[in-house]
């Protein structure tokens, strides 16, 4: 099933509605990367709330999307990872290093709005922010 | 009959028991004897049940008296004991009659559910069942004292079934108790890791005591659920109360931090004692991914800063008149 990609201001929002095959995931990656250039998007949000399983290919594709989008000038946020999925991912060592994550779509948008320049620290870590 | 004696007390269905006796006594081919004797056994069991039904009132009363005299079931009143004794008695006789134990098992479970919260001990339950067994056996002795041979055969039919009943009730009770204990353990474990909200979008998770893999798992699950329901952005995990840490525990902690990040929450770990800091550096656990602050106060201040809060004395906030 093809994932709908919505344009909202400077951001692209891909909302995954059901379990995806590997081919669907690759198709999503192609579509997103193409449209980042086409719409001159500065941010990409991938909503995975509907997924209750994520395998290594899905995680790798999400990471690739984030890295590729960054090369094209857009920051990516993965939103809506379910607690059970997060726990399983960590146990399998799939931790999406260097990719921003947020609780839900609203948080994801807030995160992108806070960093309008599109150049971000690779993960929000309190240790790296200057005090005060 | 000598052959039959060692068989009593085992969980052998009356039919088989009779078969052995038949062979030992008559020395004939096994099969027809078994049939004849199981029929005989069934007849004896019927006779036995009839006897127990007939003397129901008297035996029940005798049993309740014996229970009181043995100072068992002290948590219950005499009326309660008599009421329970009646239903146990009826279930007992029914199990003897039908040879099926499901009803009795269900009843034992139900009874245990009711009496465990009142503090009834295992030895009391086993004690009363053995008392009933004794009361019934004595009444059989009294009834068949003239005919020793028949008494023996009646006992052959009665004892294995009675043992199985005693077993069923005791096991039912112990299982129920274990279930209660498991439930309580679960409750304690959940209480032991409270996830507390101290500010809008800020959670703290104080960990006290030993972290084993099971607890680490439960702790992480609880934290992730809390992050979702409270829409938390920052979590402070305080491990002041954790006495020792090895690489396993440290790995669990790292996993918790990473899983929280996947949900969009930042984790700050506070309260690493000097010993733990030394251990972690010595065994070479990589905690560079983890934000750490000295104590809980510092952790909460850091979290507030991340969330954009600033705590000020009142006079600095209220404009001076």
Helices and strands in order, then pairings?
The complex is a heterodimer of chains A (132) and B (321).
Chain A: E1 5-8, E2 11-15, H1 22-38, E3 43-47, H2 56-71, E4 75-79, H3 83-91, E5 100-102, H4 105-114
Parallel strand pairs in A: 2-3, 3-4, 4-5
Antiparallel strand pairs in A: 1-2
Chain B: H1 14-26, H2 30-54, H3 56-69, H4 78-98, H5 102-115, H6 122-143, H7 148-191, E1 196-199, E2 202-208, H8 213-230, E3 234-241, H9 247-262, E4 266-270, H10 274-283, E5 291-293, H11 296-307, H12 314-317
Number of strand segments of chain B: 5
Q: Based on the coordinates given, report the CATH architecture of the largest domain in chain B.
A: Orthogonal Bundle
**Major sheet of chain B: order of its strands?**
1-2-3-4-5
- Structural class of the helix and strand makeup of chain A? alpha/beta
CATH topology of the largest domain in chain B: Globin-like
Mean pLDDT of chain B: 81
The overall pLDDT of chain A, averaged over residues, is 85
N-to-C span of chain A: 48 Å
**Which protein chains make the most extensive interface, counting residues with beta carbons within 8 Å of the other chain's beta carbons?**
A-B, 27 and 26 residues
- First-residue to last-residue Cα separation of chain B: 109 Å
What percent of the residues of chain A sit in helical stretches (DSSP H or I)? Answer: 25-40%
CATH class bucket of chain A: Alpha Beta
Helix content of chain B: 55-70%
SSE succession of chain A:
EEHEHEHEH
| Structural domains of chain B: how many | 2
């Amino acid at each position: 099933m093809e994932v709908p990609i919505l344009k909202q201001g400077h951001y692209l929002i891909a909302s995954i509605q059901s379990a995806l095959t590997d081919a669907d995931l690759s198709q999503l990656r192609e579509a997103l990367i193409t449209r980042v250039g086409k719409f001159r998007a500065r941010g990409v949000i991938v909503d995975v709330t509907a997924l209750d399983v994520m395998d290594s290919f899905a995680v790798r594709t999400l990471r690739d999307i984030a890295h590729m989008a960054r090369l094209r000038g857009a920051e990516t946020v993965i939103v809506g990872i379910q607690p059970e999925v997060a726990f399983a991912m960590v146990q399998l060592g799939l931790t999406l290093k260097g990719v921003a994550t947020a609780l839900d779509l609203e948080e994801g948008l807030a995160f992108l709005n806070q960093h309008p320049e599109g150049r971000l620290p690779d993960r929000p870590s309190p240790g790296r922010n200057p005090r005060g | 009959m000598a052959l039959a004696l060692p068989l009593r007390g085992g969980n052998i269905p009356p039919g088989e028991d009779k078969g052995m006796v038949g062979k030992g006594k008559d020395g004939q081919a096994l099969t027809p004897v078994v049939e004849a004797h199981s029929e005989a056994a069934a007849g004896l069991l019927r006779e036995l049940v009839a006897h127990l039904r007939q003397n129901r009132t008297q035996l029940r009363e005798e049993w309740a008296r014996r229970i009181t005299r043995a100072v068992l079931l002290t948590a219950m009143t005499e009326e309660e004991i008599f009421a329970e004794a009646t239903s146990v008695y009826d279930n007992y006789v029914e199990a003897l009659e039908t040879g099926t134990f499901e009803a009795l098992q269900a009843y034992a479970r139900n009874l245990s559910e009711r009496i465990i919260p009142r503090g009834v001990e295992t030895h009391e339950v086993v004690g009363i069942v053995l008392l009933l067994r004794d009361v019934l056996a004595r009444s059989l002795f009294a009834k068949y004292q003239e005919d020793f041979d028949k008494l023996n055969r009646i006992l052959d039919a009665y004892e294995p079934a009675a043992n199985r009943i005693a077993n069923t009730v005791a096991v039912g009770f112990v299982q129920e108790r274990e279930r209660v204990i498991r439930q309580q353990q679960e409750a304690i474990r959940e209480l032991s890791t409270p996830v507390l909200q101290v500010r809008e979008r800020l959670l703290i998770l104080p960990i006290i005591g030993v972290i084993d893999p099971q607890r680490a798992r439960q702790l992480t699950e609880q934290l992730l659920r809390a992050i979702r329901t409270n829409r938390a952005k920052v979590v402070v995990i305080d491990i002041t109360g954790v006495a020792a840490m090895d690489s396993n525990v440290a790995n669990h902690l790292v996993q918790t931090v990473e899983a929280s990040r996947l949900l969009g929450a930042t984790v700050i770990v506070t309260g690493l004692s000097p010993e733990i800091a030394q251990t972690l550096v010595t065994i070479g656990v990589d905690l560079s991914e983890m934000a750490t602050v000295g104590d809980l106060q510092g952790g909460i201040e850091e979290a507030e800063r991340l969330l954009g809060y600033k705590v000020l004395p009142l006079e600095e906030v209220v404009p001076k008149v």
